[in-house]
Amino acid sequence: MAFPEPQPRKQELPRKLLRSLDCKQGAVRAVRFNVDGNYCLTCGSDKSLKLWSPMRGTLLKTYSGHGYEVLDADGSCDNSHLTSCGSDKTVILWDVATGQVIRKLRGHAGKVNCVRFNEEATVILSGSIDTSVRCWDTRSRQRDPIQILDEAKDGVSSLRVSEHEILTGSVDGRVRRYDLRMGQLHSDFVDSPVTCVCFSKDGQCTLSSSLDSTLRLLDKDTGELLGEYKGHKNSRYKLECCLTEKDTHVVSCSEDGSVYYWDLVQGSLSLSVSVGKGVVQSLSFHPTEPRLLTASEGSIQLWGEESLVMEEEEGEGPA
Amino acid sequence: MAASDSDSEDDFVTYGTPLEPLEEDEPLKKPIRLQDQTVKDEKGRFQRFHGAFTGGFSAGYFNTAGSKEGWAPSTFVSSRHQKAEKQIFKPEDFMDEEDLGEHGIAPKEIMTTDDFSSKAKDRIEEKARALAALSAPIPGATILEDLVAAAKISVGVQLLRKMGWKEGQGVGPRVKRKPQKQRPDTDMKFYGCPLPPESSDKSENEDDDDYAPENVTFAPKDIIPIDFTPKEGLHGLGYRGLDPKQALSGGLRRGHFNVFSVGSERTSSLLGDDKHRRNRKGGVLGQAFGVGALEEEDDDIYNTDSLSRYDTTLCEEEPGDGMYGWTAPQEYMKKKKGSDKDVSYVGKILEGFTLASIPAAPKKVYQPPELPRDYRPVHYFRPVLEAGSASDQVVQVLLASGGQMTQDSQQTGRHQMNAAQRRELLGETALQGPSSVFDLLSSKDKERIKELKQAAEEKQAAAAAAAAAAAAAAAAGRVSAQQGLSSRFQAPAVDEALSAWQNISVEAASAFKPFEKNPEKQGRYDEYITQLKQGRKDALESSMNQHMTEWERGRERDEFIRAAVLYKPNNSTLACRFTRGKHEEDADKVDVPRDQENDIDDKTAAVKMKMFGKLTRDSFEWHPDKLLCKRFNIPDPYPGSSSVGMPKVKRDKYSVFNFLTVPESTMPTAQGVKPELSAQSKPSTSENASKPSEPGRRSRWDVSAQEKEGKDPISQFLSLARNEAAAEKQGSPLTSNEPEPGQKEEPPIEEEEEESRPPMDLFKAIFACSSDDKSSSSEEDSEQEEEEQKKPEEDPGLRQTTEPPEEDPGLRQTTEPPVQETLPDTIQVTQPRTEDAPSTHSLKPSQDQRNNEEEFGPRLPPSIPTGQDRSLSVTPGSAVHEKHKKKCKEKHKAKKEHKHKKEKKQKKKHKKHKHKGKHKKKKVEESSSSTDDSDDSDMEDSLHGLSPGELLKRLKCLPLTKK
At which residues are the WD repeats (chain A) (predicted)? Predict the structure, then answer.
């Protein structure tokens, strides 16, 4: 079965606010941990992309080059490149160290909602409201995408890539999984516009959140419903969800300014943490540690376990 | 003195050329001086001798590469049009003809290479070496060298050795050999002085005395069997000119008698001097004077006359002796007459065969017939007559005269036969395809058709009878004219048409309508065709309209016949071999995915019941790009396939249905017809559901809001109002001031169609204009953008577009609404802006440019929440945002900004009217900012500014729920 091993001790959830950072880049559209969880990226509505060290609370670099607000970003596996996308319909490949634009990929007909590297950062996949997912080659200088996945009937709101799969969530209420290895497309209908999809860490399940204020855990192979998580509020905005680092809990943003944790197996609400007044629009879970980054309005918050003690270097404390 | 002189002259033998007699008077001739002694080459050019050790003769032009005119180096020229050609020099380019000549360093001759040359070639070298060996201090040195030297055997010799040949043997089948005795003939004539006969003869005959057993075969002698000299000259075959030797020999016996066998001479000359050497053993050797080192050894002119050279007998010579020269065949023929055929001459006879004893009878040659005296070599073609057309007399005459006569059509060529006839001829079986559509019908249907047919025929017959009666009188008059007209077209054509259309299945008919433009005429033609099919001969006449003039009818008849013949349907046998093309390559076709995600209604129900799994899942074949697989480090799942993505099928390109987005045939999808959906789930929304055609197309994102609102009386009221507005709009063309929500009503038919994505160019057409400008906008640009965005806000009804602010509003009005109809809902423009009253808001122009323009999916949360202090925003970009989100009290400030920008834009407004204009602008702004995202306070403002209709007035009094 797809469920992870039951934990011997109670999983400690990141409930303590370790740090809150005002990003000073307008609304933070997305916040993302990098591949090892030491850094994070924030996508601002002021066209900038910023790289932070969230534990220290320092701004490391600002990447400017987008023509409109930045909507999503991702870091490559070797931390040498970043990719971001935005309302200017472009996808940009950045060099981390120099902050230069390596490539600006144009082709989407509308704003680009989501962007991901594949595992080896050889391909950038970007999903747009133009209903297409485009696969861009980072290894060649070709301007056109390798392939366009245009099966969605409505905008692509979310996108995940695993070793051999591409998972997309679309506003047409479907979660599509392109299996490259099998050469198949599986489309699961969830009836409500999908705002976010993600794989479980074990790669057996897909989690999707939709505008009916429901998260659904679906079996990847059969499409059966393994769990349903309700209680939060998500009816208007493109909010994100994720699983904790050990697949024990399901985490979701909410429009009421909180983050909700559900037990994955029982489906019961285990915790809800109030972040702020505004909508919590983006979150990112640390790949290995129980840490959570949330983005609400113009700031991001780092959450950790109760026991965790932060070394204070600079920056603001909890607002 | 004189006599003695003369005597002495006789006695002396003079050697050399005598000097010219010296004449005393003449001055002494000057000897040719050294510098005048010239050497000329073969062309008469002077050559200077430099001396043997300094390079020999001069070369070139005074030993230079130049000429008399000087040395002109080839100038290097290379231009764009004329590239310098690359010169590749060969050694020959630096040689003159002497070098290429026979004795030059690179003779241009075909020579055998060492591999293929025989050893006999370098005889001279051998000889020189032998001489050197004799004079060498150690006599055997060079011999040893020869022995040790690498064997160089020509290819031919190698091959022969492989076949078992040994040196000294002849080539050919092994033969039995009789010991040959050579008895000197006593009758022999001797010319010149006879030599002592003993020495050489004995040495030769020693070999012949060897004992040869009967059953032992020997290799043939090493001779050349036949000399295949090419025939030259114009002599006849086998002719040789008068041989002086033969002439000398006189006619001793009948025929020619050879003292010397010519063959042996030739053999010896061909084989080299082996025989000579053997012969040279005895007698006087001709080497008394020695032979120069590089000189060809002369023939032994003094030793030719040995006795062994004389043939003493003619007939006893052994057959394998090899004298197969030009005389040999005759000799053998004579010699062996009556006796056994000489097998060895013919070659090896195959086992089980013998040579024929009785020669084959010679072919009898007949004389050609004698031509009659009055023969003229001219061919006369006899007339060919058709069977029916010729009278008996003519036929008989023709037959009598041997003329041709074409027989019945059955016996004519295959082109006159149809497929069935040919099939019968060839004995093939008929194809199994249904010959007629009647075969496919059930018996009941057949009966029904038969009844119908009978009824129709009866009716027709009655009508025909009536018509005939009526037309009888008129017809009489017409007949002559008709005949005159009908004679214009050939009778055979009528028959042809008849035969063509008989036995044609119903389905094949009526496929082609030649007179489609004229329905009446087509009707008559159809009638004609049906009658043809029934096999009626009078089909043409009966199908004619009686009211037409003769001329018209004649013409129409002509046309009908021609059309019937031309558009004759395929024979059923032929037809079942072909099928109609299913995939036409057509420019009007477009690729659409083969598989569609369908039956959303079922799935919705399944989702409602939480029956995820098979019910909600669609799995399709999907082809990833090869490069994508490569980048993902995954083997291509479809290695042979070249297609990418979902399998595609062709469909009409310009069908409007391709641009429609309603995915379902029967079903209200989640997108288009929300009320029905909500009706399914919530009975309370029955009002909504009862409206069959909801005008607005809304995004899927409205789902939850809509459902929520179902209970809300306000929303019902609003949707009602919206319907009215939409109906109004439908009736009249769009005007600029109309409060058009940007949502055109979809015709209900569209919902019947399958959903498919519009082609990419549609998106491009919409989005292309501004994409580039936007992407590079800097912060200053953003202000500019803002201004530009402001401007369209003044026409609230037209705020539909996602992008182009540069477009002037008027243009947008005209161009966009039709586009919208065809857009999928991804490009859905208006959005319900607030959670509580989405339909209301969708009527209103969208306000917040930054946020709203591209909000098609789930919106992004507002960057600054309502309650938040606006000091947070620092960057200009966010300032723009904020502006729209300000509360009423803060608006004043904002207005100033707005005004400031507006002034730039709206140039028509003069400064003296500034105050007034300002006031107006305020209003506009208020209205424009009314639909701010999630900003409830804006609602009040909107009421002032929104010009359109009572609908919005009503909005004014709506209680607004706060978030």
Answer: 21-62, 63-104, 105-146
Closest CA of chain A from B934, distance in Å:
11
Pairing of strands A81-86, B617-621: unpaired
Cβ contact B57:B50 at 8 Å = yes
- Fold of the CATH domain A16-307: Methylamine Dehydrogenase; Chain H (2.130.10)
Torsion of Cα atoms, B114 then B115 then B120 then B126, to 10°: 50
A168 three-class SS: strand
Contact A164 B864 (CB under 8 A): no
pTM greater than 0.80 (yes/no): no
Question: B951 pLDDT band (50/70/90 cuts)?
Answer: low
Nearest CA of chain B to the CA of A237: how many Å?
A: 5
Total residues belonging to chain A = 319
Residue type, B444: K
Token pair in block for residue A85: 């996308």
Q: What is the DSSP letter of B408?
A: -
Selected residue of B595, B626, B775, B875 to mutate for chain A interface (largest A Cβ count, 10 A)? B775
Mutate to test the interface with A, among B603, B616, B835 (most CBs of A within 10 A): B616
For this complex, say whether ipTM is above 0.95: no
Q: Domain map of chain A by residue range?
A: 16-307
String of DSSP letters for B142-191 = HHHHHHHSPP---HHHHHHHHTT--TT--SSS-EE-PPP-----TT----
Beta carbons of A135 and B625 less than 8 Å apart: yes
pLDDT digits (tens, 9 = 90+) for A235-273: 888 899 999 888 889 999 988 888 999 998 888 888 888
Q: Which residues of B touch A255 (CB under 8 A)?
A: 861
Cβ atoms of B746 and B672 closer than 8 Å = yes
Residue with tokens 């707005």: B898
Q: Kindly list the residues from chain B whose CB atom is less than 8 angstroms away from the CB atom of residue A112.
A: none
CB contact under 8 A, B621 and A185: yes
DSSP B933-957: TT-TTHHHHHHHH--SHHHHHHHHT
Among partner residues B608, B663, B875, which is closest to A25 by beta-carbon distance?
B875
Closest residue in chain B to residue A254, using alpha carbons only? B861
What are the residues facing A64 on neighbouring strands? A48
User: Cβ B619–A188 below 8 Å, yes or no?
Assistant: no
For residues B282 and B307, what is the distance between their CA atoms, to the nearest angstrom? 11
Chain B residues with CB-CB distance to A183 below 8 A: 621-624, 637-638
Q: Which of A118, A179, A238 sits opposite B857 (nearest CB)?
A: A238
Say which of B600, B645, B877 has its CB closest to residue A46.
B877
pLDDT band, very low/low/confident/very high, at B710 (cuts 50, 70, 90): very low
* Chain B partners within 8 Å of A173 (Cβ): 670, 700
Query: Nearest CA to A166 among A205, A125, A202?
Result: A125
Phi then psi for residue B782, to 5 deg, are -65, -35
The tokens for A280 are 């919590």
Q: Are B645 and A133 in contact (CB under 8 A)?
A: no
Q: Radius of gyration over alpha carbons of chain B, in Å?
A: 60
Q: Which residues of A touch B635 (CB under 8 A)?
A: 181
Answer whether A151 sits within 8 Å of B872, measured CB to CB.
Answer: no
pLDDT by residue, tens only, chain A of 319 residues: 556 665 555 667 888 888 888 888 888 999 999 988 899 999 998 989 999 998 888 899 999 999 989 999 999 999 999 999 999 999 999 999 898 999 999 999 999 999 999 988 899 999 999 999 999 999 888 888 999 998 888 899 999 999 899 999 999 888 999 999 888 899 998 888 999 999 998 888 999 999 988 999 999 888 888 889 988 888 888 899 999 888 889 999 988 888 999 998 888 888 888 888 888 889 999 988 888 999 988 889 999 887 766 554 444 434 3
